[in-house]
Each structure stands twice: as structure tokens, then as C-alpha cells.
User: Fold this.
Amino acid sequence: MDQALLTRRGAPGARNEDSTSTSSSPPIDSAGSDVLLVFGGTGFVGSSVLTAALEQHAAKTTATTSKKLELLVITRTGKAPKWYDKDPSLSRAIHDGQLHFLAGDMRQSSSPDTVARAIVPWTSNAANHFLGVVSCIGCITLWNNDNMVVTNGRANIHAYQICYSLPQHSTTANSSKPKFCVISRDRTNWSQALYANLNMRSFPGYYEGKRVMDDFLAEQHDTRGYAVALQAGCVSGVRHTVPELQGSTLPFWIPLNVCCPYECPLWCCFKVINVEDLGNAVVRFILSKQPSPEIWIKNDDIKSFFQTES
Assistant:
């Protein structure tokens, strides 16, 4: 069961027959790498986080800070979406050995142990510095309420547990406690009637799972400031589709991109954030040496989150 849950596929820069490029154990690098784990990293938000991480880390790299960034992406399939081949940044990262894909079902109680075994090639290198974990795990399955509770709640708790079991090998002055960031949900301006009658009756497990994770974070006093939840509203932007469809992208939630949702009465019940703003905020927090003063970051505060860090 463990091996079925988590297997490593392919070789660095190699082509898998039924997926795009995936990668396996990296060669030992005496200089070490900055390593970031991203759960659910091939989805709408997760892909934005990967792109932002590659861009921001490259901008911070100097002649005296030359560690390269390695992104370990854990998904249920362990495969890169086919459209990654058409994205210059992500396809180059795969080719350069910066982007590695591992398969793992985070809903399983054994997932922390199986992930720990899968990342041994990185944890065994004492020169590596683990930045932390980003969890973009979440789903709405109208046909299975229990699955929504587990996926949006327990799976994210497992991601947190993995984050704070990572070795802290780095002894540099710049090292700090690993950061953990999970994408949650902002409901601050939803009317009680709409929330209770529409959403809680339509997919209650989604919100119950998010609440389970939020409550869990509130109890983690040892990691306060280093573990946060970005409570996004409706995420707008461009969602990629399968390459077989004409055109590589389709807009996600078109009305929110056309009108002014904060001013239009039609959208008065929704908070909105662009997917690139969300991804950039996640990475700014992860790469910063400073803790966050807040555990929960509301939708309207995400765009400026850690933007003015000194």
C-alpha cells in the first residue's frame, strides 16, 4: 500500500510514456539546494505557486547565495500536466532538475510516513535547506461529502505534519523554522442566509473540512507565525485545459474578470482574488525570514501580504 501511495517516476529530464516529464532522485549536490514541498502543485492555484517560486527565488539569488531551488510537487498521480510542456518556465524547470513530481494520496493516514520515505534523497543531503510546505489541497465532490471533509481537512493536516518533521540541516545565519502555508476560504462577506441555505446544503463537507484545518492551525502554538492560512475568496484568472482542446487556456470565472465584483450588486456576496496575486503572496511568505503576525490572512489582505517586508 505504501508504495502504491507514493512512487517516484522517471529520471531527471526524462519523458514518461503516459505523462509529461517527471523526475526522480537528484544527484548529490555538495552546495545543497533550497527545497520547497508543494502539495496539489499541478492545479489552478498550485501551478501559480510554482511559477512564482521559480521567479522570486531567482530574483533573490546572488553570487553569495547560490543555492538553487528544488520544488517537490506531490499529487495523487505524480505526473506533470501535459500543458507544462508549453509553459517556458515550468518546462525549463523540469529539464534543469528543479521540478520533481511524486505521487502521494494525502488523504491516507500513512501519507506522512510515505512522503518522508520518498523525499529521503533530499533529506539525506545535509547541505539542503528546507523552506517549508505549501498545501493547495482541496476539492468539491458533490457526490461524496465525507471525501470533501477528509480532503479539505485531514489531508492538509498531514501536509502540516510533514512540514514540521522536515530536517533543519542548514546552519547558516539565514536559516529559520520551515514555513507552512495552506489555501483556505474567506467567507467574511457572505450573508448568513446565502451561506446556510446555499453552500452548506450544497457541499457542506467542503466548508467543514476547511474549518477543521483552520481550527487545527489555531491550536499549533509552537509554529505560530510560521504556519498560516491564506483565506482566499473566488480565485480568478486563466485556467489551463487539456492540450487536445483548441486553444491552450480558458478563462476561469469569466464574469469576475469582466465586471467589478466589489461594486456590482450581482457579486456582492463574493470576495475575489487573482490567481497570480495569490501565488505571489504565498511565495513571499515562504521565502521571508520573518514570521507572520497573523495566522489567517483574509482575501482582501492577501495581495499586500509580506509585500513591504524590510
